[in-house]
Amino acid sequence: MAYSGCATGEGTASYRDSLSGRAEPRHFRELEDLWMSSVGIGTYLGEADEATDASYRDAVAEAVRLGCNVIDSAINYRFQRSERNIGGALDSLFRSGEARREQVVLCTKGGFVPFDSVPPKTREEYLAYLESAYFGPGVCGPDDIVANCHCMTPAFLRHELDRSLRNLGVETVDVYYVHNPETQLQDVSREVFQLRLRNAFAELERAVEAGKIRCYGTATWTGFRADAGAPDYLSLDEVLQAALEAGGPGHHFRVIQLPLNLGMPEAFSKPNQQVEAQRVSFLAAAARNGITVMTSGSILQGRAAKGLPPVLSEVFPGFETDAQRAIQFARSAPGVGVALVGMSRMDHVRENMKVAARAPAAFEEFIRLFRKD
Question: From CA 103, how far away is CA 12, in angstroms rounded?
Answer without folding.
Answer: 4
